[in-house]
Amino acid sequence: MGKTYIVVAEVRGGSLRQVSLEALQAVSAAKQEGDDVASVLIGSQITTLASELANYVEGHVFSVDHPDLEIYNPESYLDVMKTVFERAKPDAVVLGHTALGRDLAPAIAAHLGAGQISDVTAIEKNGDDVLFTRPIYAGKAFEQRQFTGGPQVVTIRPNNFSPAAPASSPAEIVELDYAPSGSLRSIVKDIVRKTSGKVDLTEAKIVVSGGRGVKSAEGFKPLEELAEVLHGAVGASRAACDAGYCDYSMQIGQTGKVVTPEIYIACGISGAIQHLAGMSQSRIIIAINKDPEAPIFKIADYGIVGDLFEVVPLLTQEFRKVLV
Amino acid sequence: MNIFVLLKQTFDTEERIVIQNGEISDDGVKYVINPYDEYAVEEALLQRDQHGGTVTVVGVGPERTAEALRTALAMGADEAVLIGNDGLESDEYTVSRLLAAYLEKQSVDLILGGNFSVDSGGGQVAVRLAELLGLPHTSSVTKLAIDGQKAAVERDAEGDTETLEVALPAVFTAQQGLNDPRYPSLPGIMKAKKKPFHHIAPAELGITDEAAAKTKRVSLSLPPQRQAGRILQGDYAQQAAELVNLLRTEAKLI
């Protein structure tokens, strides 16, 4: 008998998240001939998204559609997963390493008594063994891990697997009922969407990041303009966050977020080790800094020694010429 | 209020990683309290000072972990517990089992931990523990206000801020911005030496090899070294134009 993989797909801003398709691709890399793959979609008014998801899944799509599930709640989502597990007993559960995945995966792992390998960036098969590569120390080193037994839970880092190709035939959609338990101990009262309409930092293809050299909250304006032209996201160093120029949710580094965009543009960032850990796996690194001795230049593909407040607007102008 | 803080000792974030004989070398490495756990310790102290009670810091790890626990005592925590795991193959599954075995025997109102550890970075233990203890949890918390048996919480979810109401006892993990951790004071350091410090072995908690790790490391590597690239020349306008051109022709990314 083959194994059963269950991929927890995710809705954000009314769309299916790219990382969910990447998680499906990751499962293709891990599974053996004869294994089953199912996916779960949880949310409110998700009929269309469930059909969209079904195009990428071989087995079943479990759709759990209820107004109370519009917003992620650890208890209600775990309850839903328990219902799914009654229908399809999982050997492995795979999620994106997102706000939702990071929160739900360990709860699922504890419920199943499973091991979990988090934040996986690559999967390799070695005979019957499946090896999972993941960063440690925020990417200062990498380890390969494997499961030693029991059910498995895996979270996949966004932007590291190509999205799954459409399946040969769409999966059958199975709608599961959800009965609100009425005894939830945690209730989401409100969400302030600071990021609506913006590109998510960890999924962005281009990141424009500011450091101490940005000097003020106001100083981030030119960076935001550049990011907008490039359809990228704005990040920051710890120094900029600690100085109060920007929100901690923008922090990139060993404390903060790890990003791996195609292009990373570091503006006024000197390049402390703890920051480099969070961005040195970017494909192309561009550094703009007044100080020619700044360590960031040692790892940058292209460097501009100069005042970011003069250089960044010129860059925005040049990109606009090319991209518009 | 009985407050427990989950605490891990990690390398300082300014440390470089060196691999020696297939292991990460800790030669000359400076150890600290995991930065996210430091926010948890600070929050525990603030909550205790406001609502009364005791703060117990709990760590799982080798003997050197005691140093991080003593730092937390010097910050103001009341008691420390070190659960040794020498000889027990450990991963997040194991550590959460050890913590659950200890905490289920305690009277708990509030458990605080870090959002993740800056070394292994799995972000699993606190959430696993909540599930094992049957407690609600909220991760990545940036604000915590306790009123009787309820907590009003703000949480960072990929840049969005969620406001929640959570019934206590509960588990919360600290995100940056929650507070500004204090430094241990000199009198604090002196007092810490006299505070209760308990060592517990897994066997005392009834934990045996059946709680051994469910995952194992098979290899370790360093990322490829990046080389310094090219410093552009000319006036700023020329450099900007050249950069865009290089991204198109050389890197083929635009």
UniProtKB/TrEMBL annotation, chain A:
Record-linked CDD domains: ETF_alpha (cd01715)
Keyword tags: Electron transport, FAD, Flavoprotein, Transport
Pfam family, one: ETF_alpha
Keyword Electron transport: yes
Domain Electron transfer flavoprotein alpha/beta-subunit N-terminal: 4-191
Gene3D superfamilies: HUPs, TPP-binding domain
Listed SMART domains: ETF
Coiled-coil regions listed in the entry: none
InterPro entries attached to this UniProt entry: DHS-like_NAD/FAD-binding_dom, ETF_a/b_N, ETF_a/FixB, ETF_alpha_N, ETF_asu_C, ETF_asu_C_CS, Rossmann-like_a/b/a_fold
Family: Belongs to the ETF alpha-subunit/FixB family.
Protein's name in the database: Electron transfer flavoprotein subunit alpha
UniProtKB/TrEMBL annotation, chain B:
Domain of life from the UniProt record: Bacteria
InterPro entries linked to this entry: ETF_a/b_N, ETF_b, ETF_beta_N, Rossmann-like_a/b/a_fold
Keyword annotations of the record: Electron transport, Transport
A matching Pfam family: ETF
Record SUPFAM superfamilies: Adenine nucleotide alpha hydrolases-like (SSF52402)
All residue ranges annotated as the Electron transfer flavoprotein alpha/beta-subunit N-terminal domain in the record: 21-209
Gene3D superfamilies for this protein: HUPs (3.40.50.620)
Record-stated family: Belongs to the ETF beta-subunit/FixA family.
Subunit structure: Heterodimer of an alpha and a beta subunit.
Protein name (record): Electron transfer flavoprotein subunit beta
